[in-house]
Amino acid sequence: MNKTILRFGFLSGVVSVALMAATVPFIRSIRHEPADVLGYTSIVLSALLVFFGIRSYRETTGGGITFARGFGVGVLITLISCICLVVAFQVMYFGFVPDFGEKFAACMVERARSAGSTDQQIVETARQAQQFKQLYDNPATNAALTFGMSFPVGLAATIVSAAILSRRPGHRPVQSGEPR
User: Fold this and answer.
1) Residue among 80, 69, 91, 71 nearest 11 (CA)
2) Contact criterion met (CB below 8 Å) for 70 and 4
3) How many CA atoms lie within 13 A of 4 on its CB side?
4) What is the CA radius of gyration of the chain?
5) Tens of pLDDT along the chain (180 residues)?
6) Vertex 122, ends 118 and 123: CA angle to 5°?
7) Half-sphere exposure in the Cβ direction for 33 (13 Å, CA)
């Protein structure tokens, strides 16, 4: 079990970190839409690896796992992946793109302007953007927010995958054409 969890946890983490790293060129511009799409895509793609990890575990255990065991495997894979993402984002935020907070705050205000927001709404958006920047400038809240952004997606993938892949040990699905 440990090898499967570690292999798929780190593989999921590598996918999310690699796609996050691909967003760095977009951070330098005011247009964050491509970075947003890549960022959320990376979270979903890395969560899909939870399914394959649970399936791999099921196959190595002789074809059967309970929902609880599949859930446990999926949560551990998700935790490893999220920790990889948090560490990589910390390195990126504080090491390679120290002006990310200012760029993101400016992007929030620009999006509000482009959407035709009132002056009062733009001022409120600027205030919220500064609050987000302050939160992300603190390593502890930065880590918590980054973890909180990706973990729920992995948890949802875990629940769905464990439900789909769970079956009693020794149970094999009926093949088409076989009598039931």
Assistant:
1) 80
2) no
3) 19
4) 20
5) 689 999 999 999 999 898 888 777 766 565 556 667 777 788 888 889 999 999 999 988 876 789 999 999 999 999 999 999 999 999 988 988 788 778 778 878 888 888 888 889 888 988 998 998 898 899 999 999 999 989 999 999 999 999 999 876 555 555 556 555
6) 115
7) 3
Beta bridge partners of 167: 65
Distance CA 160, CA 157 (A): 5
Question: Which single residue is written with the structure tokens 């875990």?
Answer: 158
Cβ-count burial of 129 within 10 angstroms (0-12 exposed, 13-18 middle, 19+ buried)? buried
pTM over 0.70: yes
Helices (DSSP H) in 33-91: which residue ranges? Answer: 33-60, 67-91
DSSP 169: T
